[in-house]
Amino acid sequence: MTPVTPDLPGALRERLLRVLAAATFIIFFQAFMVAPVLPQLGEAFGTSPERVGLIVPAYLIPYGVATLVYGLLADRLGIWRVMSGSLTAFAVLTALTATAGSVEQLALWRLLTGLGASGVVPLGLVLVGRLFPYERRGRPLGWLFGAMAGGMAFGSTFGALLEPFIGWRGLFLAVGAAGAAILLVLMPSRGIIPGAMAAGADLGTLFRGYRDLLVSPRGRRTYAYVLLNSMFHSGVFTWLGLYFERRYGLGPVGVGLALLGYGIPGFLLGPVIGRVADRHGRGRLLPLGLLLGALAAAALILDAPLLLAAVAVTVLSLGYDMTQPLFAGIVTALGGQRPGQAMGLNVCLLFTGFGLGSLLFGSMLRLDFGPVLAVFAAAELALALAAVRLFRSEVPPAGGGNR
To answer: To which H or E segment does residue 270 belong?
Structure first.
């Protein structure tokens, strides 16, 4: 079980939670503001949206892989040193992305930003595990995943809405400045952020740590679902901007408005979903969240009115909000004395899944959106049906504990 720091005053703990949520929000805003403007970036660099779309996995996959390193560094050096360095890299590299003069340069800056920025969110999740006991982590995890969802929602919406006015370069400069401002706000809290959580270890010990995380049925099923569910959501979401442009003939502003519902459920209901999970068990909500994702993707196949498609986007978001935060809640109980390693693996698989899902969906677009959406929806439905049995033991402590 992750060691908890119970003696921190509640007001300081809540303030730190809010700042972490703000940092999470801006990082996800930056990650998802790109997807809806892929057609505009294609025009700016004289190439197709499918080719420029490679900048999405160019950011997400390095981000996911680097989280493994940051989690281990935090266990050894302390959370504050690693988190502040990563947030600094995020602010600087995001601003420098505005200097790109080609798709190749843009992809390189995105890759470097992914490597530099990936220490903030996983360590924020680790902090929740340190500062809140397992039976009360649903609400703070709901805040952080709500901030992720809000960043997705506002990033996808305002990325599309603002690009015609300030340009894609202006977007990156503004987000870089916001990241620097959050770092300044976070600095007064550095004294209450825990130090090193574990002594240094050789490679054999580190690999045994990953083996121990994956050897138990609980660890295997949780991490597998984190990867597969993130592939589904990113694969569908990354290409929604192009979907609405081609299916409904929308421009940047119309695309932004159509995507407005993505992230709203988590932004508004994240803590509520967390409390419900704490009270009734994650195993009861997870299959429902997976089912909602499958139904939303299936609805996008239909030749439906624009309003119905926008509602499907909102339901897709709700499916994410009822799955990935709950998986993270389980992971916080898997790490033992190395919570950074456990959460690093979680976020690694989350973002690697984001990148792979985006690549897979894009590579299948030659089949058109309908068949690709049908494949993704069928896969998510299979995950939902299997989850009924696989996660039935994820019940509140009063019901027999989590195993």
So the answer is: helix 264-280
